[in-house]
Write a structure and sequence with these properties.
The protein has 510 residues and is of the alpha/beta class. The chain has 15 helices and 27 strands. Among the domains are: 163 residues, 3-Layer(aba) Sandwich (Rossmann fold), CATH 3.40.50; 98 residues, GMP Synthetase, Chain A, domain 3 (2-Layer Sandwich), CATH 3.30.300.30. A hairpin with a 6-residue loop joins strand 1 and strand 2. The longest helix is centred in the first third of the chain and has 17 residues. The protein starts with 5 loop residues before the first helix and ends in a 7-residue tail after the last helix.
Length: 510
């Protein structure tokens, strides 16, 4: 695959084709998006932002966030940040990123502005144009901007996007993604989904996260398709948005799909009126039961994909011809192999999933120790360790066992939390489950599970444990089952196993 920049991906599509839409707004066309990109590039250079400078973007979900990413990434390095951060979090990320400028909404005066001012960043205001097509905006600088920057174009090996890893158990690592990485991933996703110009994505994913930025926005734009940008996921609004946007597909994390399913029965007419070509799920393993319910409800293929930030999102994808419940699909862009978990060698069977390809980050920034640990050379290629355990079946489909750091080590017996999730979800009263490790004084770790029951259903901890005991080996049966109204989720809607024992007060060995 030839290396491309984001600008090159947008160049070929008809000027009058719709690109970006939003509630109550006319559509921004590809011609309008290209013109806007040129205006923003000119403004950034005038404000002293060059092609290698880093621009933090702190905007709410919506068309302006989508166009700000698409436009700024054609001129400089983008660094989208979660608008919900507190001031000390913004201070950490802005300093860690070495940002030169920050994009804020016109009236934003909260913690992001305070952190940016404390570090002397150039503050650029996104001035949305109410009477213009969706996503249209102009830039205004607060105060003096300094020397004008050279009018240079980003090249394929320039950094387009910087994101941090989640940092659940350690300091977040900086992941730089090149123009060529993002472009390759966008094309891979478009090819996997067969995206055409008449496809329309209903985006409900946060646009400070790789899933929304690449799978929804970049892949659609690369294919000449369109995106309808919601203000963020809301199960109560999803079907009204669906009726208005008339999408052909949407992409989400499993917890979002489950919330949508909970309201699908009362919205059957909309589902029939707006038939989807497919649904996509990524960023966490989709339980087989949920895949089946989605397929039955929407009457469309449910395409599960496997992605992570270091791969500019997608690594594997279930093809339209065959969706294997419980599998994240076939390699869909990079080469996918299995490696020994401690030795730098490729192997057959179960082990650590590794990838190599044009969409893979060149390495963590300023972290030689992490690069030494996570990258290695074998068979003439550079491989990245994903941190996931899994195996390829006889058809080449990848089946994940779980994150290596999430595998529960119960006195030397290894338990896959995904396997336990799958068994418990067969219980007729259980709607949602997340299995996790809790401390144990003799075994080191013990199996625990947090569950949410279906509306109106009843079950006790004893019932659930008995159900599990009939279906799996004794050492895999959760010794603790906590029944909750809602399971804590991260900023992107994913349930997080690591740290859950601490959140639920289960950190003291019993």
């Amino acid at each position: 695959m030839a290396q491309h920049t984001l600008k090159e991906l947008l160049a070929a599509h008809p000027k009058d084709a719709p690109a970006i839409g939003a509630p109550g707004k006319s559509w921004l066309s590809y011609g309008g998006l290209r013109a806007l990109s040129e205006e923003i590039r000119t403004d950034l250079r005038r404000f002293g932002v060059g092609r290698s400078d880093r621009v933090a973007i702190v905007l709410p979900n919506g068309p302006e966030m989508a166009t700000a990413f698409a436009c700024v990434a054609q001129a400089a390095t983008t660094a989208p940040l979660n608008p919900a951060y507190r001031e000390d979090e913004f201070a950490f990320y802005l300093e860690d990123l070495k940002a030169k400028a920050i994009l804020l909404a016109e009236d934003e005066d909260g913690p992001a502005l305070a952190a940016a001012k404390a570090q002397g960043l150039l503050v650029l205001r996104v001035v949305a144009q109410s009477d213009a097509p969706a996503g249209s905006f102009s830039l205004r600088a607060d105060g003096d901007t300094g020397t004008e920057a050279a009018a240079e174009e980003p090249q394929a090996d320039d950094v387009a996007l910087i994101l941090h890893t989640s940092g659940t158990t350690s300091r977040p690592k900086i992941v730089p993604l090149l123009q060529s990485n993002v472009a390759a991933s966008a094309q891979n996703i478009g090819a996997s989904l067969g995206l055409k110009s008449d496809d329309r994505c209903l985006n409900v994913m946060p646009l400070f996260h790789i899933h929304g930025l690449v799978a929804a926005v970049s892949a659609s734009l690369a294919a000449g398709a369109s995106i309808w940008c919601s203000p963020g996921f809301n199960a109560l609004s999803f079907f009204s948005w669906m009726k208005e946007a008339r999408p052909t597909w949407y992409t989400a994390v499993p917890t979002m799909h489950q919330a949508i399913l909970s309201r699908a029965g009362r919205n059957a007419e909309t589902i029939k009126e707006v038939p989807l070509r497919f649904l996509r799920s990524s960023s966490a393993s989709l339980p087989a039961q949920v895949m089946a319910q989605l397929h039955e409800t929407f009457g469309a293929p449910v395409i599960e994909a496997y992605g992570m930030t270091e791969a500019a999102h997608q690594m594997c994808c279930n093809p339209f011809e065959t969706q294997k419940p419980g599998s994240v699909g076939l390699p869909a862009g990079p080469e996918v192999r299995i490696a020994d978990e401690s030795e730098n060698v490729l192997k057959d069977g179960t082990g650590e999933v590794v990838i190599s390809g044009a969409n893979v980050t060149p390495g963590y920034e300023g972290n030689p120790e992490a690069n030494e640990k996570n990258f290695f050379e074998a068979e003439g290629k550079r491989w990245f360790r994903t941190g996931d355990q899994g195996a390829l079946d006889e058809d080449g489909f990848l089946h994940l066992t779980g994150r290596l750091k999430e595998i529960i080590n119960r006195g030397g017996e290894k338990v896959s939390p995904l396997e336990v999730d799958g068994v418990l979800l067969d219980h007729p009263a259980i709607d949602t489950v997340v299995t996790f490790a809790m401390p144990h004084p003799k075994l080191g770790e013990e199996v625990a599970a947090a569950v949410v029951l279906k509306e109106g259903a009843e079950a006790t901890e004893k019932d659930i444990r008995a159900f599990a005991a009939e279906r799996m080996a004794d050492f895999k049966v959760p010794r603790k089952v906590i029944i909750m109204d809602e399971i804590p989720k991260g900023a992107t809607g994913k349930m997080q196993r690591i740290g859950l024992a601490e959140k639920l007060g289960l950190t003291e060995p019993a």
